UniProtKB/TrEMBL annotation:
Enzyme class: oxidoreductase
Annotated protein name in UniProt: NADPH-dependent 7-cyano-7-deazaguanine reductase
Source organism per UniProt: Aestuariispira insulae
Free-text function comment from the UniProt entry: Catalyzes the NADPH-dependent reduction of 7-cyano-7-deazaguanine (preQ0) to 7-aminomethyl-7-deazaguanine (preQ1).
EC id: 1.7.1.13
Predominant localisation class: cytoplasm
């Protein structure tokens, strides 16, 4: 099968793409996993994730870490970047943003395992960290710590 056939359904890779106005409008795309049957971890780090407080409209910032063990599919990274960027003008609480991103990826990819850590910067003096995963970590795949230290402030 040629690369052109494999990637025929992709609408964003290799062309101009507008940042979606809302996460609901974002098109997440997937590509076949060329290493299907091999246990390995894929990690995406988004250290400058932004959304809006749904009450005040003030910006909220997070360091997101997305880890998954793929089966048949990989998320196409440009579509993921545009999806995450669509939260910039989206009003939602930290918990909703973090868990919604994880669930949307699970729905698209049907991975063997996925976790997301949302390490939110404090606003109003309280940092909020949100974690979601689909089940027990696979024992046969090296899964490193996410390496994001808890917020210490002046501690």
């Amino acid at each position: 099968m040629s690369n052109e056939t494999i990637y025929d359904g992709l609408t964003q890779l290799g062309g101009d793409s507008k940042l979606p106005d809302r996460p609901e409008d974002a098109v997440l795309e997937k590509v076949p996993n060329p290493q299907e049957g091999t246990g390995y971890l894929v990690r995406f780090t988004a250290p400058e994730f932004t959304s809006l407080c749904p009450i005040t409209g003030q910006p909220d910032f997070a360091h997101l870490m997305i880890d998954y063990v793929p089966e048949k599919w990989l998320v196409e990274s440009k579509s993921l970047k545009l999806f995450l960027g669509s939260f910039r003008n989206h009003g939602a609480f930290h918990e909703d943003c973090t868990v919604s991103i994880g669930k949307r990826l699970v729905e698209l990819l049907e991975p063997r395992w996925l976790r997301i850590g949302g390490y939110w910067y404090p606003r109003g003096g309280i940092p909020i960290d949100v974690f979601y995963q689909t089940g027990e970590q696979p024992r046969d795949v090296w899964i490193p710590d996410q390496g994001v230290p808890p917020y210490r402030g002046r501690g």
